[in-house]
Amino acid sequence: MKKTVTLGALTVAALAAGAAGAATLDDVKARGELKCGVSTGLAGFSAPDANNVWQGFDVAYCRALAAAVLGDPMKVAFTQTTGQTRFTALASGEIDVLARNTTWTFSRDVDLKFEFIGVNYYDGQGFIAPKSLGVASAKELDGATVCIQTGTTTELNLADFFRANNISYEPVPIETNAEAQQQYLAGACDVYTTDASGLAATRATFENPSDHVILPEIISKEPLGPLVRHGDNEWGDIARWTLNALIAAEEYGVTSANIAELSSAPTNNPEINRLLGTEGELGAMLGLDAEWAKRAIMAGGNYGEIFEKNIGEATPIGLSRGLNAQWTEGGLLYSPPFR
Amino acid sequence: MSDTHAQTVAYVRDTMLDQQDPPLNQVGAVKWIRENLFSGWLNILLTLLSLWVVYAALSHLLPWALRGIWDASNLSECRALAAERYGADASVACWAVLAERWPQLIFGFFPKELYWRPILAFLLFLAAVAPVLFSSVPRKMLWVTALAPFALFWLIWGGSIWGPIAAILGFVIGWAIMTYAAPKIGALLAVILAIIVPVLYWLFVCGPLAGALASVVPLSLQTVATQKMGGFLLATIIGVSGIVLSLPLGILLALGRQSDMFIINKFSVAFIEIIRGVPLIVWLFTASLLLNYFLPPGTNFDLMLRVIIMVTLFSAAYIAEVVRGGLAALPKGQYEAADALGLDYWKSMRLIILPQALKISIPGIVNTFIGLFKDTTLVVFIGLLDPIGLSSSIRASTDWNGVYWELFVFIGLCFFIFCFSMGRYSLFLEKKLRREHR
């Protein structure tokens, strides 16, 4: 998620970015399939089910995009990418869009020559500790041993946080999340730190989740979002506004249940009409037909439905909306207007 | 003197006693145990300690494995069932994850209705290697071996049957040139032609020919993309291709390293040392990341093919060194004897040197192959879903998040079966070829 990119990959990516030609939309249409890069497996965000169908929060975005462009949410070829291969896969044109809970940072956007098309999940680094440790705040962790994945930005964030609060800690370096869970449960460290969404997913797998508490402090900003290559703004627009359509649909109360009714005839909310193509020419401006957004929303529901189905409170992962609520409800989700 | 004695002893037996069974503690298992396990205070102590360790391990492992839950649809259900059946803090395996996901671990994302294809391919593969591995199998089966690579490719990737057939035609052309043209135009020219003509054929004629044939008689299997392959299917494809291709390449490199010809010698040395001096994972990253940039944009050079090439080159370098060891172990007299018989270089290698050198190298070669097969799990780092990669994918589904040991035990067992059979075959071959100590 935040594995620091190796220097080599960075240089190479910078050299070759933009090598793949423009007009991704035409390529996708000609191919009849969207190539979407996802994580090799992250609970709730992307994972294959028993029938070999990919499921998850990031996967749902790819399906919506495929539905908007090709008319069929299943016309997606998922390419599994690791923290090391994801950027080169996108830069070399092996994939059309990368939806792999990638943190939007300055250098990735500017130096690696990618275009983040929005934020689909606002994450941040948190701590999990056993209840028996008796801490209520991360600031009480003076002298604690902390399990931490090496080579990630979480490592740097952790050092910053403890220094800023003038307390000490002892790091226990860990390679993977799976290893970290085992070490933490075995008591090799007092607390484990990684992205809050990851912590929630991790805690859900414990035999006794209620024995562990996620501390309230969030010590870093991790806006996760899909990204495309520099140099094809039309494709970037389609990707960006597909995400916005999912977010806006929730804001306007368009759900997979009522979308058929709302799109059958113009309603008295002009914004909904423009979104669903019963009014205006927004689809044509993108180079798509009028019902692109309708299909995208029908693929898996609006943003809220996708959230609830994959990572929401009813799922084992049990994330609350928090920062990812609509701006009208105190969150950060704010889609620019459809006009 | 004897009289004196006779008077002091009341009875003297004058017949032999019948032979009796040795005492119970001197035969069979009891004797073995006494001699090997309880022969002195130190050994008694060590035996008891070992027994305790074995018991401690098994007393945790066996209940965990044998009481495992097979019928659950997710991990929490598994835990609930375990608590219901064996009490709240029972630690039992959740084999249900295997019951649900084993097809995925074996075949990856290969379409379910097409599972018969990899299975048939595997059987065909067994039939194809049988004549190579066992000399008791009829020699005619070698034809199966020759045709198997094309049939296997067709079965696994699908597509038109005319592609592989057109590719075979290239080899037929080369063979025809060697057989019919060589007497007329000389051996060297024939060899050069036999290489160039098929290559030109594959580059320019093969594709259109296959297309034309396919339009006349469309006979094809549903195409399966490489991304759909994973699990042990992927590991086996990469491992087997690597093994089959690296052996001849490695032998050639070993011969090249011993050659007197400057360019061939230096090329072989440089190749072996460079490939061997860099970790496999670096070569895999090269295959997956760097090659993308050297190739023109839009080139679709299959990732699995790139990996197979890299794995083959890597293990060929190791095989070359192993075979070189075998070549070096042969007495110089063998080389001189071959020369004295008037054999040319290739004949002397084929008939005299290599059979002996390879026999010496068998354990090393098989060792390299076993290593290669296990190294296929490294492809997880470049985003291919080998069994280990799939296990983390499975763990990423909300149903099975938190399952570790069950998956690793299964994967470990499968790898053990493959590698152990290879090791056993190597022993069998060594025994069969042991000539000097009979």
Characteristic key phrases:
heterodimer, A: 339 residues, alpha/beta, D-Maltodextrin-Binding Protein, domain 2, 14 helices, 13 strands, disordered N terminus, B: 438 residues, mainly alpha, MetI-like fold, two-stranded antiparallel ribbon, 17 helices, 2 strands, signal (chain A), Amino acid ABC transporter substrate-binding protein (chain A)
Notes on the structure:
The complex is a heterodimer of chains A (339) and B (438). Chain A has helices spanning 7-16, 24-31, 57-70, 86-91, 106-110, 153-164, 177-185, 196-204, 233-252, 259-264, 270-276, 282-286, 292-300, 303-310, and strands spanning 34-39, 47-48, 54-55, 76-81, 97-103, 114-116, 121-123, 125-130, 144-149, 169-174, 191-195, 212-214, 222-229. Chain A has 339 residues and is an alpha/beta fold. Chain A folds into two domains: 7-122 and 223-329, D-Maltodextrin-Binding Protein, domain 2; 125-220, Periplasmic binding protein-like II (D-Maltodextrin-Binding Protein, domain 2, 3-Layer(aba) Sandwich), CATH 3.40.190.10. Chain B folds into three domains: 23-62, no CATH class; 101-110 and 224-433, Orthogonal Bundle (MetI-like fold), CATH 1.10.3720.10; 161-221, no CATH class. Chain B is 73% helix and 1% strand. Chain B has helices spanning 2-8, 28-36, 41-66, 75-86, 96-107, 116-133, 142-157, 162-185, 187-216, 231-258, 262-277, 280-294, 303-329, 332-340, 345-375, 387-396, 405-433, and strands at 159-160, 220-221. A two-stranded antiparallel ribbon of chain B has the order 1-2. The longest helix of chain B is centred in the C-terminal third of the chain and has 31 residues, at 345-375. Chain B is globular and about 110 Å long. The mean pLDDT of chain B is 88. At the A-B interface, helix 1, strand 2, strand 4 and helix 7 of A face helix 4, helix 5, helix 12 and helix 16 of B.
Q: Number of DSSP helices of chain A?
A: 14
Apparent shape of chain A: globular
Structural class of chain A: alpha/beta
Helix and strand pattern of chain A: HHEEEHEHEHEEEEHEHEHEEHHHHHH
- Stretches of chain A where pLDDT is under 50 for at least 5 consecutive residues are 1-21
CATH class of the largest domain in chain A: Alpha Beta
Q: Please give the number of β-strands of chain B.
A: 2
The domain tally of chain A reads 2
User: Helix share of residues of chain B?
Assistant: over 70%
Calculate the terminal CA-CA distance of chain B, rounded to whole Å. Answer: 58 Å
CATH superfamily of the largest domain in chain A: Periplasmic binding protein-like II
Task: Give the N-terminus to C-terminus distance of chain A in angstroms.
Answer: 34 Å
CATH superfamily of the largest domain in chain B: MetI-like
Q: How many strands, what sense, and barrel or not for the largest sheet of chain A?
A: 6 strands, mixed
Biggest sheet architecture of chain B = 2 strands, antiparallel
Q: What is the fold-level CATH name, i.e. the topology of the largest domain in chain B? A: MetI-like fold
Largest protein interface? A-B, 47 and 37 residues
Could you tell me the CATH topology label of the largest domain in chain A: D-Maltodextrin-Binding Protein, domain 2
* Biggest β-sheet: strands ordered side by side in the sheet of chain B: 1-2
Radius of gyration of chain B: 31 Å
Low-confidence stretches of chain B: none
Membrane topology (chain B): Multi-pass membrane protein
Main location (chain B): membrane
InterPro entries (chain B): AA_ABC_transptr_permease_3TM, ArtM/GltK/GlnP/TcyL/YhdX-like, MetI-like, MetI-like_sf
GO molecular function (chain B): transmembrane transporter activity
